[in-house]
Amino acid sequence: MARIACVLVPHLDVQALERGDPELAGAPLVVCEGRDVVDLSPPARALGLRPGMTIFQARAAAPDAIYRARSPELVRSAEAALVDLGHSFSPRVEASSGAVAIDVSDLGRLFEDDAQIGNAIFVGARKLGLAVRVGIAGDKTTARIAARAGLGPRPETGAASEASFLVTVVAPGREPPFLAPLPVELLEPSPDTLATLRRWGVHTIGELEALPAGGVAVRLGAEGAHIARVARGQADTPLAPLAEPLVFEEGIDFDWPVENVEPLLFVLRRLVENLTSRLACRALASGDLGLTMKLSPRGRDVRTVPVAAPTRDVATLVALVRLALETAPPAAAVEGIVVRTSPAHTRSAQLSFFEPAGPSPDKLASTIARLQALVGDARVGAPVVLDRHLPDAFTLERFDAPRLKQPGERRLPPADEARALALSALRPPVDAEVRLDRGRLRYLAGQGIGGQVLAAAGPFRVRDGWWQLPVTRDYYDVHLSDGAIYRVFHDLARDSWHIDGCYE
Amino acid sequence: MFSISIFVAASASQIAEVLAGMRAESARLVSAASQPPPARLPAGSPALDALTGGGLPRGRIVELTGPRGSGRMSTVLTMTAAVQATGELVALVDVADALDPRSALRAGVVLPRLLWVRPQSLIDGLRATDWVLDAGGFGLVVLYAAGVTSARADERPRPWRRKSDVRGDAPWIRLARGAERAKSALVVVGDRPTVGTVAAMSLAGERGRARFVGGERGAPLILDGVQGRIAVARSKLGPPAATAEVALDVAVARR
Questions:
Q1: Is the minimum CB–CB distance between B39 and chain A shorter than 8 Å?
Q2: CA-CA to A53 of 20 to 30 Å: which in A36, A256, B60, B185?
Q3: Minimal Cα–Cα distance from B189 to chain A, Å?
Q4: Residue A391: its chain B contacts at CB < 8 A?
Q5: Which residues of A touch B71 (CB under 8 A)?
Q6: B207 contacts in A (CB within 8 Å)?
Q7: Buried/exposed code over A218-251 (b: 16+ C-beta within 10 A; e: otherwise)
């Protein structure tokens, strides 16, 4: 038995703006497009304003209301969030303007009944910053009518949650009696058809149902046949699920250009929060972030902020964006910004029975991303020795916290053996001055280092990079009178001396 | 260590207040003494294990100090290899940017299981250590700040930073709590003691004698190793004043 949930966002333009700027919630908000008022928040309606008024009429009637231009970017983000909400319940989701239809037929094992599904959808939408109406019925048209009607069962006693008023469930087979008392406008007929129905004296869906279907079809055409079928509870429009690529994008256009990084980050934080909430709907995390900034008066700044490991940690992502913006600020004031993320799955790990439990993959990924934001891009990871002759040739690769012992892992030296003498590197190498006597090192001095050479082993010649940038160095192990042993090299190409480490 | 204070009591209420304070302190000490001893991680060699009273204590801070060339990096790498051999992960927060990966490899460190963080200031290093401890799951965390003075703490200008230096015990207390929560051993390496009373144990390294071989009849001189010493300067976990001779051998490294 098919069950379809229709999730509707009333006053989408208003809600999209409130989602982008939560401080607008509860304020008398007027959304304008050109010179016309296109949408109003409930407090603005209470001031006597109506859609269709000109902005001048509205300002005359309510000068204290907040007037904002319609933001297509925010509306798109809100609709995308709605689709993500649908996908957190079912893979079969159909989107239309300001609404989604979700196939909830097979959720019986997760929820006790349809009302519980509706409540869960309502709560999920609230987490995404949207107040929705939910209708559940056997087909999507009836579900949409139920959502628009908003006639949830009122509890007889006690306080009820807000959701119970905004979730309407039509029991299977009970479509005609449910629809009968509802106004015929909920069938969304065209203005001409509605005018004809009015002339016939048809005001409710029940009155339309009472008319002969064939006669209605003959007089009103295909549209008449369709609404007559819907009125009988026989709507046959199938669900057309989406097959869109996963795109997670949030954007906003500013009312005036933003010149400083801090206010930009303030807005970005909200966008990133919205993105991570949407990613959470699909059990995904954020990979690299793409920023597109609309510059004033023209031009764009497009950049990618690398994220070391997928994460949904807002603080980490904002820190990375902050680092990117402060390292290379935009060339001009910013008029609008779009944040796009490449979704990635959070890591999972198989715990070993015989090894200690390591860090949780999610937490480790988030920590590594934070560390990367703190210390820089190429300064966090696992070291890898490069197959080169230069002793300080290494790179860093992503730290994956491998749990199991690596193939070919080195044996730990027996505990009774002497320990290996390690080098403590000086990066970058310290420029040094030397005094030579018949080819032998006698005195060495560098930044904070200096003394007589007591003993010097070497030279050990190293040649590297002959195919690209040849490097030839003579290395020495030098015991100085300050008591320490240094590794010193003589760059033969440049005839310069450097100290690149101390044996520690 | 005991300290003796002389009070000149002004009133009976002041005497009562001092006595109450002494009772509270006594109760705290009894409570601390009755806590179970911390679990240990291997320190890498019998000498180091004996010196530390059985290995590195989990959930505590061990401080290792000494002058340049006193074997601090070798000791850290030995500890790292030993802890990794038990299956634990190790993180090295290397404020001095001093790790030589080839030396680490020779010391038996499994590089893919070593998280290497290279902060550019001590403040960043403290923060990074805090975050690594917060992530949990690392048996050993090393904050390597040898040769880094607090004057370097804010070397890199950052407009949103307000703190300019590391002062007081607050960061170390925070790190000690982090280590306790994560059940990780935290080793702090520096030139001189900075952790203070928060450290469960302070080890002091002394610069050793260098050994060279060869040089006779025109044979080339080769660095053979260093003989160093590490002493327990202070310990809350066992009898103090132990000293260990530590051989750092180049020959072993090149084998």
A1: no
A2: A256
A3: 12
A4: 100, 102
A5: 421, 504
A6: 483-484
A7: eebeeebebbbbbbebebeeebebeeeeeebbbb
CB–CB of A122/A167 below 8 Å?
A: yes
DSSP classification of residue B174:
H
- Please state the three-class secondary structure of A247-297 as a single string: CEEEEEEEEEEECCHHHHHHHHHHHHHHHHHHHHHCCCEEEEEEEEEEECC
Mean pLDDT of B137-160: 66
Question: Is B196 domain-assigned?
Answer: yes
Residue owning tokens 């905004």: A166
- Local confidence band at A358 (pLDDT 50, 70, 90 cut-offs): confident
Tokens 């530590």 identify what position? B246
Q: Quick one: average pLDDT of B201-215?
A: 84
Q: Whole-angstrom Cα distance, residue A285 to residue A302?
A: 22
List the domain range (segments joined by +) for residue B16: 2-248
Give the confidence band of A164 by pLDDT, cuts at 50, 70, 90: low
Which range has the top average pLDDT, A221-235, A451-465, B74-88, B152-166?
A: B74-88
Distance from CA of A500 to the nearest CA of B (A): 10
Q: How far is A476 from chain B (nearest CA, A)?
A: 10
Q: Give the nearest chain B residue to A364 (CA atoms).
A: B135
Rounded to whole angstroms, the Cα distance separating A134 from A122 reads: 7
Interchain CB contact of B150 with A (< 8 Å): no
Q: Is residue B21, in this structure, part of any structural domain at all?
A: yes
Residue B254 lies in a domain: no
Residue A244 has pLDDT above 60, yes or no: yes
Asked if B101's CB is within 8 angstroms of A374's CB, the reply is no
Q: pLDDT tens-digit profile of A198-232?
A: 898 988 888 888 888 888 888 888 888 888 888 88
Structure confidence at residue B79 as a pLDDT band (50, 70, 90): very high
Q: Render pLDDT for B181-198 as a digit per residue (tens, 0 to 9).
A: 999 999 999 998 888 888
In whole angstroms, what is the distance from residue B181 CA to residue B200 CA?
15
User: Which single residue is written with the structure tokens 């195919």?
Assistant: A467
Interchain contact, A367 vs B225, CB within 8 Å: no
Question: What is the rounded distance in angstroms from the CA atom of residue A162 to the CA atom of residue A131?
Answer: 10
Determine, yes or no, domain membership for B97: yes
Among candidates B115, B131, B132 on the partner chain, residue whose Cβ is nearest the Cβ of A382: B115
Q: Is the dihedral of CA B71, B76, B79, B84 positive or negative?
A: negative
Quick check: ipTM above 0.90?
no
Q: Do A422 and B247 touch (CB under 8 A)?
A: no
Question: Which of A413, A420, A425 faces B74 most closely, judged by CB atoms?
Answer: A420
Tally of structural domains, chain B: 1
Is residue B251 predicted with pLDDT exceeding 50? no
Beta-carbon separation of A385 and B128 below 8 A? no
DSSP state letters, B117-146:
E--SSHHHHHHHHHHHHHH--EEEEEEE-T
Weakest-pLDDT range from A91-95, A150-154, A397-401, B58-62: A150-154
| A439 burial via Cβ count (<10 Å: 0-12, 13-18, 19+) | exposed
**Residues in chain B within 8 Å Cβ distance of A392:** 100
Taking a C-beta distance cutoff of 8 angstroms, is the pair B95, B122 a contact? yes
Of residues B85, B101, B135, nearest to A367 (C-beta)? B135
Q: Do B252 and A479 touch (CB under 8 A)?
A: no
CATH number, domain containing residue B128: 3.40.50.300
Would the pLDDT of A393 be above 70? yes
